[in-house]
């Protein structure tokens, strides 16, 4: 069966520090991968999606970047965090032939 | 572009009350519609879905019917439990969506059920 992992589960970082959040998927190949952010009390915002290794599409201009160095690995990064980067970050995957998305457990990021 | 509008929360109900969370959408053609649930501190889980007009998705006592004429996908449950307390997201994938199969989410509705 397929599983999706995210780490860390929680993170507290100072403003201006770098960020690296990792997402990995097991039990499938060539998935579409997604990064979402959920700000406190708000809905979900799609940040990035990837349809293959090295292929990244950005939905909104921002302080973050994403990379996909391996088929089932999706990384969210920042060189210098802002206070506004605080939120709950969710990774998700699906197959091209199937429209249902499966979400990871999320990473709660607090920038102080 | 595509959009999803949900009723704002929080919705507070007593146990065994009837639940309705409204969801309407704007999209071209016939999108696929979803309800996701997020329990406290967790990621999202698919609750139910419907992929064509008049389909009814159902799971765990929850139901939603794809209404093309009113562009709606309201979530209902006849008798809520305390364990149903969570945030509920309505979402769609547009009919003209290509390789990404990207979801467009509503803002989420927090449900609190009191014993």
Structure overview:
The complex is a heterodimer of chains A (112) and B (115). Chain A is mostly beta strands. Chain A contains no helices and eleven strands. Chain A has strands spanning 3-7, 10-13, 19-26, 32-38, 44-52, 55-58, 65-70, 73-78, 87-94, 102-103, 107-111. The N and C termini of chain A lie far apart (38 Å). The model of chain A has no long low-confidence stretch (mean pLDDT 90). Chain B has 115 residues and is mostly beta strands. Chain B has strands spanning 3-6, 11-14, 19-21, 23-26, 32-38, 44-50, 56-59, 62-65, 75-77, 86-93, 104-105, 109-114. In chain B, strands 2, 5, 6, 10, 11 and 12 form a six-stranded mixed sheet that branches. A four-stranded antiparallel sheet of chain B has the order 3-9-8-7, with no helix packed on it. A two-stranded antiparallel ribbon of chain B has the order 1-4. In chain B, a hairpin with a 2-residue loop joins strand 7 (56-59) and strand 8.
In short:
The complex is a heterodimer of chains A (112) and B (115). By secondary structure, chain A is mainly β. Chain A has no helices and eleven strands.
Number of helices of chain A: 0
Order of helices and strands of chain A: EEEEEEEEEEE
Overall geometry of chain A comes to: globular
By DSSP, the count of extended strands of chain A is 11
Largest interface: A-B, 23 and 22 residues
Described by strand count, sense and barrel closure, the largest sheet of chain A is: 7 strands, mixed
Note the quaternary state here. Answer: heterodimer
Largest sheet of chain B: 6 strands, mixed
Instruction: List unreliable stretches of 5+ residues of chain B.
Output: none
Helix content of chain A: under 10%
Q: How far do the termini of chain B sit from each other?
A: 41 Å
Average per-residue pLDDT of chain B, rounded, comes to 91
Instruction: Classify the secondary structure makeup of chain A into a structural class.
Output: mainly beta
